[in-house]
Amino acid sequence: MASAPSSKYIFAPAAHGTSHQADQYTKGSLERLQLDPDPFKQFHVWFSHAQSSSVVLPEATTLSTASLPSGKVSGRMVYLKELDDRGFVIYSNWGTSRKAKDIESNPYASLTFWWQELERQVRVEGAVERLKDEESQIYYDMRLRSSRIGAWASPQTQVLESREELEKRVQEVETRFEGQEKIPVPGFWGGLRVIPEIIEFWQGRESRLHDRFRYSRAEQDGESGSWKIDRLSP
């Protein structure tokens, strides 16, 4: 008797196509004694290692946000542009984008970094805050002129009738700032800092028995204090 046709488009894919079993992670391990007490310093160590190990775009990260009261989640790839002693900074449109709408109702976000070449990931969760215009201007000035023009021209995530409509907006902005190298950062565009409450470092291991360590803020007199480090079950 013939089986019913499957409705699955993908099922248990594998890297080599010869088996449904997932590849094993064998490139490293992680122990508590290897971790810096400060998660920002620990991230910097791992990020620097990723850069020196030719990881493709180690600054690429998934920014996830959720809208309230619906609770619907959205995610997108962005670039980490700064790390300071307060948190992780990315730049984007905060006027018309989906993430702007999410954060307006729910000022929390998460970042997920995946460094395949090292079989590592880092997860960051926390509240968010907008950078001041003068802070955003510093990074904005470093961008290519075409990218600065694009920030002004694109009503991010809004429906376009055609590509020509976007290109017309770009030309209008080009005309507006013609002969002007110093372009002000748009008020609707700039930096967003994720201020971590939790940072998790994940090292892939064989048989999916990964090494996971979570930094979380310990509460002291109702305020955030030092970082607590826990090993988590995979």
Key features of this structure:
alpha+beta, 234 residues
Describe the structure.
This protein has 5 helices and 9 strands, in the order αββββαββαααβββ. The protein has 234 residues and is an alpha+beta fold. Strands 1, 2, 3, 4, 5, 6, 7, 8 and 9 form a 9-stranded antiparallel beta sheet that branches. β5 and β6 form a beta hairpin. The mean pLDDT is 92.
Low-confidence stretches: none
Helix fraction? 10-25%
How many β strands by DSSP? 9
The fraction of residues in strands falls at: 25-35%
Q: Secondary-structure element sequence? A: HEEEEHEEHHHEEE
The count of helical stretches stands at 5
Shape estimate: globular
| Average pLDDT number | 92
Rg computed from alpha carbons, rounded to a whole number of angstroms:
21 Å
Which structural class matches the secondary elements?
Answer: alpha+beta
Largest sheet: 9 strands, antiparallel
For the terminal residues, how far apart are their CA atoms?
Answer: 42 Å
